[in-house]
Amino acid sequence: MGHEVLALVRRVKEGDGVAFQAIYDLFAKKIYNFVYRMLGSKEEAEDITQDSFLIAYRELKNLRKEAQFESWLYHIARNEVYQKLRHGKFLRYTLDDGKIAHAYETKRQSAELNPEETVLNDELSQAIQSALADIPDKLREVFVLAVIQKVSYKDICDIVGKSLSAVKTDIYRARLMARDALKKYLDGSVAAKPHSSYKEQ
Predict the structure, then answer these.
(1) C-alpha–C-alpha distance, residues 69 and 159, integer Å
(2) Angle between helices 69-87 and 3-13 (to 10 degrees)
(3) When you count CB atoms within 10 A of the terminal residue's CB, does the N or C end of the chain come out lower?
(4) What is the pLDDT of residue 183?
(5) Whose CA is closest to 135, among 181, 187, 172?
(6) Domains contained in the chain, CATH given
(7) Rounded to a whole number, what is the distance in angstroms from the first to the last CA of the chain?
(8) Averaged pLDDT of the chain
(9) Residue 130, φ and ψ in degrees, nearest 5
(10) Residue 182 contacts residue 127 (beta carbons within 8 Å)
(11) Has residue 137 got a pLDDT over 80?
């Protein structure tokens, strides 16, 4: 984690709300994308993203290893995801200050693409999400972290609480399953579009 983020974390622990807003701006999109890829619901991803940051804000004072903030934040979001998957519900916190929710919504709207880009990205997102739906939760999470979000293996170990060898094995298995699932999805699309072509890497 960079020195800038580390400095922000320390400022938040000293009670600096502006610093936490900066942290939110830096990490909200990553956490949202992780949760969305795990659950496949934009609404639930938005809710869990906000809940995760609220939990982080309240619990940050207890974080001893400040350099592991990003992994810790992912771990919080992961816990919320599995709570949703297990029980169909997750903890909700009341916003003491509407700034966090407003900042996330503003950031999301400002990142909107033009119509053509939106269609292309939606099609790709649908293909990836359809493939991910066929992968078990424990493999899906490491695939999303390693392949889609480019998180380091070391950080993934911290996030999921597994050894490096176990994480590598899970990522390998997830890659194989994702490749097969994506191929089935794209082959179906090819059948519907005779002029399209797909070449497996």
Answers:
(1) 11
(2) 70
(3) C
(4) 79
(5) 181
(6) 1-112 (1.10.1740.10), 114-201 (1.10.10.10)
(7) 33
(8) 79
(9) -65, -40
(10) yes
(11) yes
